[in-house]
Amino acid sequence: MDENTKNINKDDILKHTSNLIDLVEKAYKTGTATHKVEQDIFTELLKMGHMLLAYLFDLYQGGEQGETIELSDGRKVKRLSMKHKRSYLSIFGEFNLSRWVYGTREGQKIDCIPMDKLLQLPSSKYSYLLQDWGQSLVVSVPLFAMILAATMLGFYTSEVDFTIIAAELYSLAENPMLLALPLSAFVGYILSESKTSERLLRLTHAFFGWMPTGLAIVSLVIYAVLLLLQVLRALLLLL
Fold this sequence. Notes:
Elements: H1 10-30, H2 34-59, E1 68-70, E2 76-79, E3 84-90, E4 93-99, E5 102-103, E6 110-112, H3 114-119, H4 128-140, H5 143-157, H6 163-173, H7 180-193, H8 196-208, H9 214-238
Antiparallel strand pairs: 1-2, 2-5, 3-4, 5-6
């Protein structure tokens, strides 16, 4: 049972469903914007999902199976005197579950937790659905999309308006230094396709290749020339 929602019953859930219908009808009468209605419905559905899942946990009554149970190996273990707690994080929020456990005595290895077995709960606190979503995000979603989603989730939980994202993107787009990124890529492409670096290497090698440390000097000269080009490009951008 989730201690924070242990008084939930069917009437509460049905009342919440009725409130959702009233929310939509009120939005129609007042002409509420669609995006605001969507946000309100989503918030209420999350609350309703939390209530339904808490009701499911409550139906199991902590997984009580009597004073003793028989394990698959034939051993009989007794129900311990106190319920054991665990945290369970679902897509609807976190639950603090209190379950009956069976074993030899307190302080020793727990042999069976019927509620966890019946509900097929994961060993970690995160639900299997959350774990699947996390794996799918890591495998298939680009990193920038994950960062954006995490940012939006943080804004949503902190009740920050999403318009701040558009404002920040606009301020970044106005930054003149941002032009250096595509120009730098363009310059790099030109240098690569024109084989400028190879020609510079051959030229400097003709002048310094005969010296014992010619390779180091050639590298330094090429680096100095490319650095000079970068500085000149930056100065042109600032003018």
